[in-house]
Amino acid sequence: MNTLTASSRAEFLRLRTWPSLWVLLSAWLVLNLTFVYVFNYLTYRSDGGTGFGAAVPRSVLLARMLPGAVPEVLTQGMAMFGGALILTLGALAAGSGYGWGTWKTALTQGPGRLTAIGGTLVALAVVVAALVVVVFAVDLGVSSIVAGAESQPMRLPWVGDSARAIGAGMLILGMWTACGVLIGTLARGPALAVGLGLVWVLVVENLLRGVGAVLDPIRFVTDYLPGTAAGSLAGGLGGAASDAERTPGVLTVLGPGLAAAVLAVYLVVFVVATAVVLRRRDVD
User: Fold this and answer.
1) Stated pTM of the model
2) Is residue 101 part of a domain?
């Protein structure tokens, strides 16, 4: 346990001073604010009252930007765009060690292989958890400003809803992070790992779901893909009110409980697979 703690601290220190970490986290924070609040508020204040190609009542747009809706909108972008960014973080954290030679040094002179990869996973888990909490706090602050500017009642979200949303966000991003670490370990490099991960999240899963819509045997498989489970969990929190208003990547294929269970299984499988691969093969 002491070696794992030391490895986690060392990895967290590396991540904390790593520019790529702050770029990716800042990108997600900016995208979240832009698509959830900036665009919706500009649309709300415009004369048209429609947003993103679909007619959305102004009252609905305003309701989405109020503090009470924060638990619903928190996870909307995590299924696809946020997941892609966090998968990139995991792939870079694991894959860059091969290009820089740090894995070889750490595994030959430092702790055991499982301890080393465990430290990386623990440090990334801390980063992901902190990111979700920060995004929730920022969303709550911005929504409070909107409520004050529009003379709306300051109704804060229920604690239970907030806890579920934060937990769901951590599970979704945690799964994508573990997936990125596995891909980075398999690819032994950041560039290929990031490319493969982004193609899977943004292209392959959407194509498979399209094929599954007309072929029942394929549909059974696509219903339990990582992105489908992540989107279903986000949709179960209220992010998919209708097809016209649905955020890309947010689905209602699985129930929230089943979606959370599937994500937990993927998380465990990705972590175990990473440990097995790193332990059994040469690091050269």
Assistant:
1) 0.87
2) yes
75 inside domain: yes
Longest Cα pair distance anywhere in the chain, in angstroms? 65
Number of helical H runs and strand E runs in the chain? 14, 0
Contacts of 249 (CB under 8 A, 6+ apart): 77, 79, 80, 81, 83, 227, 230, 231, 234
- How is residue 269 written in tokens? 């499988």
Residue 231: which domain range? 2-29+66-280
For 214-254, the pLDDT digits (tens) are: 777 777 788 888 888 888 898 888 644 545 456 766 777 88
Based on the structure, what is the number of domains in the chain?
1
> What's the first-to-final CA gap in the chain, in angstroms?
27
Listed residue (178, 167, 199) closest to 270, CA to CA: 178
- Sign of the dihedral defined by the CA atoms of residues 66, 79, 249, 225, in that order: negative
Residue 38 lies in a domain: no
Task: For residue 183, give both structure tokens.
Answer: 């891909």
Tell me whether residue 227 is in a domain: yes
